[in-house]
């Protein structure tokens, strides 16, 4: 007699569909983030919390069409910079945390800096499968790699494994289908992408061209006008580009953030 796993199926027996895997749940160390001066739900009215309240409001108005017709895929917002070290990941995480405080919105934070992912590190989490794995494996679904967090309205999509063809993967039909699913599946969802720097990789401009809104982080007193102009030139195809002027020091020991549209 064959072993149990080799028994033929009984004729007429209904095959039950495989159960979908339960979403992974991870714990963000919110106390650690608060000590780093970042935005958290219970962090109070800190300068960073107030600044990102100002930053998010026009982005949400455009995503919802409150100032006129809604921007196509306006709920897909990419945060990038001209060069590394300007604070784009810091701004992406804070923006996601701030939007997650809204009463009627859920947020998906995507680490799309696939060559040098840092969102999970900032959140105090270990590496996990994510965006690149979905694009490489047709059998893998978005729900398989999204991480639910202890912030009820915030989920995270890690970058996943590195790949030398990242630019082509981000420009692929699979990526366009994924973005369409992300943008349209949940009407109340805003998606924040942490992108690579524009002047270092080709992935950034490919990614930005598929977004409804772009946020360009510029480091005060460090990023040159030439770098900003070149970054904006690469964003020419994007209709809605916003700037965050980051790391302005009004007095010793303080960080202020300016926002320009």
From TrEMBL:
- Report a single Gene Ontology molecular function: protein tyrosine kinase activity
Q: Which UniProt keywords apply?
A: ATP-binding, Kinase, Nucleotide-binding, Transferase, Tyrosine-protein kinase
- The AAA domain covers 77-233
Q: Which domain of life is it from?
A: Bacteria
- Quickly give the catalysed reaction: L-tyrosyl-[protein] + ATP = O-phospho-L-tyrosyl-[protein] + ADP + H(+)
Keyword Kinase listed: yes
What CDD domains does the database record attribute to this sequence? BY-kinase
Q: Please name the InterPro entries in this protein's record.
A: AAA_dom, Bact_polysacc_biosynth/exp, P-loop_NTPase, Wzc-like_C
Question: Key word Cytoplasm present in the record?
Answer: no
Ranges for region Disordered? 1-20
Q: Name one GO cellular component term.
A: plasma membrane
Q: What is its EC number?
A: 2.7.10.2
| Family of this protein | Belongs to the CpsD/CapB family.
Entries under PANTHER family matching the protein: FERRIC ENTEROBACTIN TRANSPORT PROTEIN FEPE, TYROSINE-PROTEIN KINASE
Q: What is this protein called?
A: non-specific protein-tyrosine kinase
Tell me which species this is from.
Rugamonas rubra
């Amino acid at each position: 007699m064959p072993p149990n796993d080799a028994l033929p199926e009984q004729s007429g027996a209904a095959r039950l569909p495989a159960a979908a895997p339960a979403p992974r749940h991870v714990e963000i160390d919110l106390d650690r983030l608060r000590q780093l001066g970042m935005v958290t739900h219970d962090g109070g009215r800190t300068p960073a919390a107030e600044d990102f309240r100002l930053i998010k409001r026009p982005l949400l108005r455009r995503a919802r069409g409150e100032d006129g017709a809604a921007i196509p895929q306006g709920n897909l917002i990419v945060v990038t910079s001209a060069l590394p070290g300007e604070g784009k990941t810091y701004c992406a995480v804070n923006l996601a945390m701030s939007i997650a405080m809204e009463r009627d919105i859920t947020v998906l934070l995507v680490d799309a800096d696939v060559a040098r992912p840092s969102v999970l590190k900032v959140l105090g989490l270990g590496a996990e499968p994510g965006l690149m794995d979905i694009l490489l494996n047709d059998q893998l679904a978005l729900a398989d790699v999204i991480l639910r967090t202890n912030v009820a309205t915030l989920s995270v999509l890690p970058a996943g494994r590195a790949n030398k063809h990242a630019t082509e993967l981000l420009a692929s039909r699979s990526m366009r289908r994924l973005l369409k699913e992300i943008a349209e599946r949940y009407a109340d969802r805003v998606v924040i992408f942490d992108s690579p720097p524009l002047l270092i990789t080709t992935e950034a401009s490919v990614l930005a061209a598929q977004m409804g809104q772009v946020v360009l982080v510029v480091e005060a007193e460090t990023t040159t006008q030439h770098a900003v102009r070149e970054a904006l030139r690469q964003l020419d195809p994007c209709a809605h580009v916003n700037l965050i002027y980051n790391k302005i020091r009004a007095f010793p020991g303080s960080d202020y953030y300016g926002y320009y549209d």
